[in-house]
Amino acid sequence: MFRSLIVYATSLTRLLPVQTFQVFGHEIVINVSKKYLLATLMFLHHHSNSNYQLLTSISGVDYPERDERFEIVYDLLNIRSNSRIRIKTQTDEINPLPSVVSIYPSANWWEREIWDLFGVFFSGHPDLRRLLTDYGFEGHPLRKDFPLSGYFELRYDEDQRVVVCEPIELTQEFRTFDFHIPWSQDLKKIT
């Protein structure tokens, strides 16, 4: 099985503009440039030997130290042979990725989620708007440089009987911790 996956992945490198490929267990992982992403996914969907008809997920990973900091991962499934393939591509905050909703309609939700949480723009998407955060939300919360506490806090004001949105004030004194461990005295007596 492993040998046949390597043979198949090698044949894909002859047909597609694959940068690198790896085989992990029973799954092929292919890295492609973002300019060839749409053509690669179209081939894998329509070619009779590939026949990856189902997009099972799209996920994003943030690597802030890289020039192209976002890695977008497409997981595909061939239902007939129960084989999986993973396509990876990289982009930054400025350059968009092509939307794959025309090939895989289920990509609509995941592309909106990645736009909302990472800020990766998908050109040609039919309805790219926030999905999990509020429409007035500033920033993208799954980026590594997003502050853990956020930029604003919401609280309910009893006097006004409304939810109030205020900038966060982190006025907190340094805490002093007592690192005294009661049983450490017993250890000193033993030694």
TrEMBL record:
Gene3D superfamilies: NADH:ubiquinone oxidoreductase, 30kDa subunit. GO terms for molecular function: NADH dehydrogenase (ubiquinone) activity; oxidoreductase activity, acting on NAD(P)H. Residues 30-151 form the NADH:ubiquinone oxidoreductase 30kDa subunit domain. It comes from the Eukaryota. Keywords: Mitochondrion, NAD, Translocase, Transport. Pfam families: Complex1_30kDa (PF00329). SUPFAM superfamilies: Nqo5-like (SSF143243). Belongs to the complex I 30 kDa subunit family. HAMAP family: NDH1_NuoC. This is NADH dehydrogenase subunit 9.
